[in-house]
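thread: overnight batch results

M.L. [08:02]
morning all. the overnight job finished for the chain we discussed friday. pasting input first so we're all looking at the same thing
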Amino acid sequence: PNAVQLISVDPSSPAHIRALVEIWNHACGEPLAISERFAAFNLRASAGVTQAGWLAVEDNWAQGIVLASFIDGYPQVAGPMDGWIDVLAVAPAAQRQGLGSRLLTAAEKWLAEHGRTHITVGAGLRPFGPGVPLEMNLLPFFIRHGYTELDASGEPQITYDLAADLSHYQPPADLRKLPAAARPAQRGQEAALLAFLAAEFPGRWHYEAEQFLHQDGGRISDYMLLWTEAGVQGACLLTFPDSVRPLERYYPYSLPKPWGQAGSIGVSAALRGQGYGPLLLDASLRRLHDNGINGCVIDWTGLLHFYGRFGFKPLRTYQQLSKRI
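M.L. [08:03]
and the structure it wrote out:
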């Protein structure tokens, strides 16, 4: 509809945040609902990230929204041609009128103007999801617009959120005893955490830890650290109901409350395959359990077998989609 105007999103405008939440929640429904706190958190500035968005408005009714972003100066996080479509949502009453296509085209044009020729749906640095939730049946729309669900080897790019009820958590029977200890990080250990991540996971996880600690005011104790004689050799980030990262990002609504989340989690390359990862995960899940967490999400993973040992099953499936322009 030509009467619909595209207005630039102002991340500091409560009205724009509210419009994003209302459009998203009408389009996605209760299982994927977001809050204004979460939307505002995801529109906060991040180091190196440029984000733009447009609201589709007619007669003061915001009917659709798109957000796109890219990062500069962090080549280990994303390349100079990479960009993301962070959000694309159209209110049900305005669907099937070409509005989604118009918003997507506006975002792609903006990304192209900034030299971004490889575009991914979701999976940005403050993600609303790691891809397109399969339950939304949006694949035909994106495929029609030139996106592919296949990776370079021709395999579908599927990822999962996994979930478990920790109310009666028991460690796996085959957990090994190892010369290591996992415990909550303490103030003053920020440098040790960041040095471990810079050495072992220098991309997104290191970037996210820096943002979490320095931009977002996150608690260092939300990280579990794995200690050996060699110092910090593993880390797992936890999300509690009072953490700075909003739990709605993990869409845990079908799980028993209180909710929590675990991940990213990783150990140093030298220790992988020896049981140190399970040791760290067990300590992290026991800590969540001891803090009264029941419904727990481990998001954005393909490691169904690894987490399955700890009682985790798929909660939601995402299709990762990308396009070269």
